[in-house]
């Protein structure tokens, strides 16, 4: 099983795709768009847990909401993909 932690504040524009690719440690090329992200994730066979922190749906850009909808659609379509939002707090 692979677990990936993503910063939802990065879900602003197409730059997210490079960030997400690094977080997933994907090798090779995939386009910087939602269709390519969907295609790559839908071919994964291993369990994938994606945890999004700093998530506030009301502050997402339009593109950020599209990213989130695409990830949620993948979660519904694929039994091996799981998506959750989490809160992270720092304690000193």
User: What's the mean pLDDT score?
Assistant: 92
CATH class: Alpha Beta
What is the strand tally? 3
* Beta-strand fraction estimate: 15-25%
Just name the CATH architecture.
2-Layer Sandwich
N- to C-terminal separation?
Answer: 31 Å
* Secondary structure tally, helices: 3
CATH homolog superfamily = Barstar-like
Order of helices and strands: EHHEHE
**The number of domains:** 1
- What general outline do the C-alpha atoms trace? globular
Largest sheet: 3 strands, parallel
Low-confidence stretches: none
Strand order of the largest sheet: 1-2-3
Topology-level CATH name: Barnase, Chain D
Task: Give the C-alpha Rg.
Answer: 13 Å
Give the structural class: alpha/beta
Helical fraction equals 25-40%
Sequence-ordered SSE layout with sheet pairings:
Elements: E1 2-7, H1 15-24, H2 34-42, E2 48-53, H3 62-77, E3 81-85
Parallel strand pairs: 1-2, 2-3
Helix pairs in contact: 2-3
Tell me what you see in this structure.
- The chain has a three-stranded parallel β-sheet with strand order 1-2-3, with helices on one face.
- The protein has helices at 15-24, 34-42, 62-77, and strands at 2-7, 48-53, 81-85.
- Helix content is 38%, strand content 18%.
- Strand 2 (48-53), helix 3 (62-77) and strand 3 form a beta-alpha-beta unit.
- The protein is globular.
- The chain has one domain (2-85): 2-Layer Sandwich (Barnase, Chain D).
- By secondary structure, the chain is an alpha/beta fold.
